[in-house]
């Protein structure tokens, strides 16, 4: 499609920025007057595109403005509303669901937006929206629709309050000044609720089967990073707490980005079994490596660990002086420094190879918060994510895997540049802030 070429073609960065600016005008607030004059604005903004391309962009842009009008006093942006709009489309596919969303469908004419669903998802990917956050938002919206369905006889102002309340839960860091007013409105709305005997258990189970890693959303221990527990009591009254989730192999992924970061997000859902082995492309692959696994897996299962790391021996150490230096650096960091970190309880993991508890990480939102750009330190982020959710990390000092390192100066310089970039990403990440806010000093020092 023309829109796909425009959005995904990285050889046209200026054109791509123009599209994102048009679709997400965060510097302006929509009004009724804006919507009346929308056709003129669209014709002027999209004059550089063909008719087919203009139709796609016009549909997305107009939908965002329509959704923004009820929230203009709360200063919500188009990006937030497009995400909510995407959630409505995902859960409005069958006739039964459309009945539940009838007042939304009538008001915002969702039928005209079905053809833009894939385009919206691609744009969400370009805006660095992770799979976990997207599905987390969809699950919130679905659960919130129980309240929608229960207050259909309420007035329009109450519906808007509930709608904004759901947005606030998904993006709770944006307008915290409105919490008292929203809480007051929600208390009044809860008093008006019409108790219905609708059972959403099957729908929730289907959602968890399609996206197993959102199961933890329905558990009592919910991370404050995404949603605040005290605001969820009304949403979890009729929600079944799932003890186990049947994982299915067939997954329909419609998220686009770089190969490595998308593998980091998607790969685990296509595998079977409890454990998976994480390998880099520079790992040894000769026959003897496979012979180690019967004993190794017994050790992994006995340790009940969620990350099980092994030592690496650098087989490129004798190819050049640079290879020897890189092997020495690997030994100092992995063998010497990490042993000290282990005593302090903050030894995350070696990197690759590692054996991972696949089911544990699927339920916790996968391995790391990757986006469409390369996550330079995905192995360190994995260890920190495991530490955050109370996972167990163990190591085997007696089993080693072969690993190649850089053998010339240019590649070695690139490696250290990558490490520096990864350190910068860590220092600016939310998980770094959470660990620094909660861990004792002895564990923080090596981190």
UniProtKB/TrEMBL annotation:
One of its GO terms (cellular component) is plasma membrane. Transmembrane segments: none annotated. Pfam families: Glucan_synthase. Residues 56-442 form the Glycosyl transferase domain. GO terms for biological process: (1->3)-beta-D-glucan biosynthetic process. InterPro entries: Glyco_trans_48_dom (IPR003440). One of its GO terms (molecular function) is 1,3-beta-D-glucan synthase activity. This is Predicted protein.
């Amino acid at each position: 499609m023309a829109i796909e070429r425009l959005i995904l073609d990285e050889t046209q960065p200026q054109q791509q920025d123009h599209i994102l600016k048009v679709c997400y005008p965060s510097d302006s607030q929509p009004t009724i007057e804006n919507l009346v004059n929308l056709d003129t604005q669209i014709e002027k903004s999209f004059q550089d595109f063909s008719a087919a391309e203009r139709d796609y962009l016009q549909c997305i842009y107009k939908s965002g403005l329509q959704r923004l009008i009820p929230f203009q006093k709360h200063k919500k942006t188009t990006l937030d509303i497009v995400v909510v709009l995407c959630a409505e489309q995902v859960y409005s596919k069958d006739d039964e669901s459309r009945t539940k969303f009838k007042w939304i469908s009538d008001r915002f004419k969702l039928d005209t937006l079905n053809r833009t669903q894939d385009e919206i998802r691609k744009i969400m990917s370009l805006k660095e929206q992770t799979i976990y956050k997207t599905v987390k938002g969809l699950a919130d919206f679905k659960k919130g629709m129980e309240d929608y369905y229960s207050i259909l006889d309420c007035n329009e102002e109450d519906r808007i309050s509930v709608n904004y309340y759901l947005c606030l839960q998904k993006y709770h860091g944006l307008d915290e000044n409105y919490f008292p007013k929203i809480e007051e409105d929600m208390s009044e709305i809860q008093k008006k609720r019409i108790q219905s005997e609708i059972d959403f258990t099957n729908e929730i189970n289907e959602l968890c089967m399609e996206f197993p890693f959102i199961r933890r959303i329905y558990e009592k221990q919910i991370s404050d990073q995404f949603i605040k527990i005290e605001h969820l009591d009304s949403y979890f009254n009729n929600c079944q707490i799932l003890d186990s989730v049947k994982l299915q192999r067939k997954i329909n992924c419609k998220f686009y980005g770089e190969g490595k970061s998308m593998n980091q997000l998607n790969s685990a859902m296509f595998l079977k079994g409890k454990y998976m082995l994480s390998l880099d492309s520079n790992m040894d692959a000769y026959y003897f490596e496979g012979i180690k696994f019967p004993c190794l897996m017994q050790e992994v299962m006995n340790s009940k660990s969620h990350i099980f790391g092994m030592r690496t021996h650098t087989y490129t150490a004798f190819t050049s002086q640079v290879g020897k230096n890189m092997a020495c650096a690997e030994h100092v960091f992995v063998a010497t420094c990490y042993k000290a970190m282990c005593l302090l309880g903050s030894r995350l993991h070696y990197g690759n190879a590692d054996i991972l508890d696949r089911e544990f990480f699927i339920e916790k939102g996968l391995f790391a918060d990757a986006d469409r750009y390369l996550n330079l330190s995905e192995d360190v982020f994995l260890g920190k994510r495991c530490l955050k959710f109370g996972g167990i990390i163990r190591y085997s000092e007696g089993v080693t895997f072969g690993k190649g390192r850089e053998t010339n100066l240019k590649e070695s310089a690139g490696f250290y540049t990558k490490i520096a970039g990864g350190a910068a990403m860590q220092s600016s990440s939310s998980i770094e802030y959470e660990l620094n806010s909660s861990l004792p000093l002895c564990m923080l020092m090596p981190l």
